[in-house]
Amino acid sequence: MNHEAANGADTLSARPVHTRVDFGPDGEVTSHETVFCNLGERSVTVEGCKGCSRFSVLAGPQGDRKVLCRAVGRLGLRLGDLGERSTRTVLSELGKRRFACLKATTSLDTIESLLLDEGADGLPVLDDAGRPLGMVSKSDLLRRYRDGVDEVTSSELPHAMHADLRPSGTAADIMVPLVHALPEDAPLSFGIALLAIEEIAQVPIVNEHGVVVGLFSAADAVRWLALEMGYVVKPPGT
Asked: Is 31 helix (H, G, I), strand (E, B) or coil?
């Protein structure tokens, strides 16, 4: 099939350059730059992309370089429709129907169980009225284990030394006190933008009184996108 006929008029689009950095056994470092080609629907080397007549320029500083390409693939034809539908889907329609929240005094043992055993990505910390005070993530828990051990106890064993490295504390000790929240009637596009701009994995959804009534995550956004593209996916956990 002729790609030009199938895709219509050319459109200038910015394609991100992906750099894979390999660290060798003796400390040598090599890098490999590729860019995804819309027409070929595969990754090609940046040098190979420069040989294409649709290539324009390489823009942006190192670490944020983009290839400007005059081509639109099949996915590009649908982005406008997806963007429009994301503004008509409200956040309260997405996400888990049942989710965990914490009090400031919740113990680290309980937090560990929720994050590791129950598969939670992040946990809002709420005040007595149900309004968000902070967020706790797996990274916060790991950081506490690395930096916040209050006491190390050890005991002699026949052939080994046992050390208890479990720190004590509560949610208030490890939470990030800055909370980004969105109203329950906010469009999905707002949620996706907030996750990307702030580089966070989840955001609490609040009602008109600021009380948490839901939790929107990056996984919810990906699940919605997959459904919109026609894939069969598992519903969010309960």
From this structure: strand
